[in-house]
Amino acid sequence: MKVEQAMHRGVTWCAPDTPLTEVAKLLRDHDVGAIPVGKNDRLIGMVTDRDIVCRAIAEGQDLKNLCARDVMTEDIEYCYADENMEQAIEHMELMQIRRMPVIDGARRMIGMLSMGDISHSMNDESCHRYAAAVSAHH
User: Fold this and answer.
1) CATH code, residues 3-135
2) How far apart are CA 32 and CA 13, in angstroms?
């Protein structure tokens, strides 16, 4: 199976200067745990709900003064839409990540591969192996 058969298409982006309160609303309104950050039509980072908690709230930051760039994770791992699912899962296991952007041959982001996508599309053995890998302590 190819990644494009399992991933969910269409991803909401935000700009690096998007206020963090707006990013939180995007997470809530789209019922997702991560929002990609783009600049000049390129993926430059990702903001997760955990990033907001650990890099802003837990540090006592004033959320009104923060934007996506202040808490985002840079150097994002990704996979290709035409990649084999087993390869993508192994990559996610190795990096211990739960969500991975999917890009096409033109290097444009076209979707996201998540833990839920894997559980709905792969056999039990692959799902168990993946869940154990990404749930292990870092």
Assistant:
1) 3.10.580.10
2) 12
